[in-house]
């Protein structure tokens, strides 16, 4: 996946909750607008799941919280992951979207679980990565420059309110990257990264409600 294509994908994903919230703001009276729009950004430790590789990354996303129900609040989320460095073995960048469920406990601590899916790219630094599995006749190994993967990403986290608008985020994701037309150079063509993020949440509007 080219960088420009990834940027376009993230922009399209991020536009969805903005469009939905704008439509809802026009159609609902002020007192009954139940949607909450927030954005977050932070730094991530990306343990790539590939030959012990790890690198620092940036994470950012937008959440559109829907009306609560029996102490739970479903939320639509989009987020992106972009590496700050090339990593010692591989770097990973990706865009995700999916469902998050917040547990409304009535105080400053807001735990949640999520399940996201998306698309990502693995880049192998330098001359690429040589992998010997099933090369063509006369070739000692395949050389991989990039891999393209579909991603499933279950995770959990907690937001801690500092004020009505600001919160600190601690987030963890366990991911399954599965290569397709440009496979990942492992026997299963899969890797299982883990991503740990600390960041800041900002809620828009009056008390974050639209």
Order of helices and strands: HEEEEEEEEEEEE
> Major beta sheet, specifics?
8 strands, antiparallel, barrel
What Rg is obtained from the alpha carbons, in whole angstroms?
19 Å
Query: What is the CATH class designation?
Result: Mainly Beta
Overall shape: it is elongated
Query: According to CATH, what is the topology?
Result: Porin
Number of domains: 1
* Relative strand content: over 45%
Distance between the termini: 35 Å
Sheet with most strands: strand arrangement: 1-2-3-4-5-8-9-12
Tally of helical segments: 1
Estimate the helix proportion, in percent: 10-25%
Number of distinct beta strands: 12
Task: Give the name of the CATH architecture.
Answer: Beta Barrel
Mean pLDDT: 82
Supply the helix-strand structural class: mainly beta
Query: What ranges have pLDDT less than 50 throughout 5 or more consecutive residues?
Result: 6-10, 12-33
Describe what you observe in this structure.
By secondary structure, the protein is mainly beta. The chain has one domain: Beta Barrel (Porin), CATH 2.40.160.20. The protein is 12% helix and 53% strand. It is built from one helix and twelve strands, in the order αββββββββββββ. Strands 1-2-3-4-5-8-9-12 form an eight-stranded antiparallel β-barrel. Strand 2 and strand 3 form a beta hairpin. The longest helix has 25 residues, at 3-27. It starts with a helix and ends in a 7-residue tail after the last strand. The model is unreliable at 6-10 and 12-33 (pLDDT under 50).
